[in-house]
């Protein structure tokens, strides 16, 4: 089988860890979830969460805190393809909530560090009050059945053709659906997302990856950017009309993330979810630094998770994927 004749490694496989000892866990970062040789930051968050959850199912099993609901991650250095070790320190085992520190290492260098808090979400109790929808302005209405067959006039589907040498191969496992009409606020980026393969579903431990897969709204301020909210749906529609894949990438900027906070508001169903909605919104883009608030919702538009990220805007050389015939159609 040739390189192009296989499917990308599933996200569920890419984030697996195995125990080394009571406080160390081994991960293997596959090239399929990297930009060139650099691991996708969201993948690293998922690996850390998997290690933390395994830690609470073994070393800290007596705490009965199986659910990671709050994660603060700092990206110190890029992680690369290959083996990585996650080392966990039991910072504050508690009766209701426990907090641990994690470090992801490669070649004895700290690549990612952070804290994770666990509890038992099934037994969570306390006051609850209804609050207004955080989505202002509202996104266009969506009918998921129509999204699936590309017939919803409010949204247009986009996927990156899978190829092991594609710069954006890390997003090839997904299908994104962008609004056909621009949002009135340029600092907002909306999308529906699902896996390209029909047999794959999103699970709770994957939310760290999903929280890092959003179209950077900075592009809405870059004249003639191919990722501008006015331009991207037209590019996709033109490519569809011509029967060719949409060119995958062309930008003068890169967006390295310094830190990510992720809070899980509710678990996804045990069988997983086919669809998720994402809104990314920036408050300030200034001096090459910007913030992003990410809301992740299920198919019923119930809030599943939120994330706050701090990122930089850096100059990067333009990298354009050559259009290739894709196996990334819905299978």
Feature tags:
mainly beta; 5 helices; single chain; 14-stranded antiparallel β-sheet; disordered C terminus; 331 residues; 18 strands; 12% helix
Q: Biggest sheet: strands, sense, closure? A: 14 strands, antiparallel
Helix content: 10-25%
- Count helical runs: 5
Mean pLDDT score: 91
| Fraction of residues in β-strands | 25-35%
What's the count of strands? 18
Please give a structural write-up.
The radius of gyration is 20 Å and the shape is globular. The protein is built from five helices and 18 strands. The two termini are 19 Å apart. Strands 1, 2, 5, 6, 7, 8, 9, 10, 11, 13, 14, 15, 16 and 17 form a 14-stranded antiparallel sheet that branches. With 331 residues, it is mainly beta.
Topology summary:
Blueprint: H1 11-14, E1 17-21, E2 24-29, E3 34-35, E4 38-39, H2 41-56, E5 67-75, E6 82-92, E7 98-106, E8 109-119, H3 144-148, E9 155-158, E10 174-179, E11 188-195, H4 207-210, H5 232-241, E12 253-254, E13 257-264, E14 276-281, E15 285-286, E16 289-297, E17 303-312, E18 314-315
Antiparallel strand pairs: 1-2, 2-6, 3-4, 5-8, 5-13, 6-7, 7-8, 9-10, 10-11, 11-14, 12-18, 13-17, 14-16, 15-16, 16-17
Provide a concise account of the structure shown.
This protein has 331 residues and is mostly beta strands. Helices cover 12% and strands 34% of the residues.
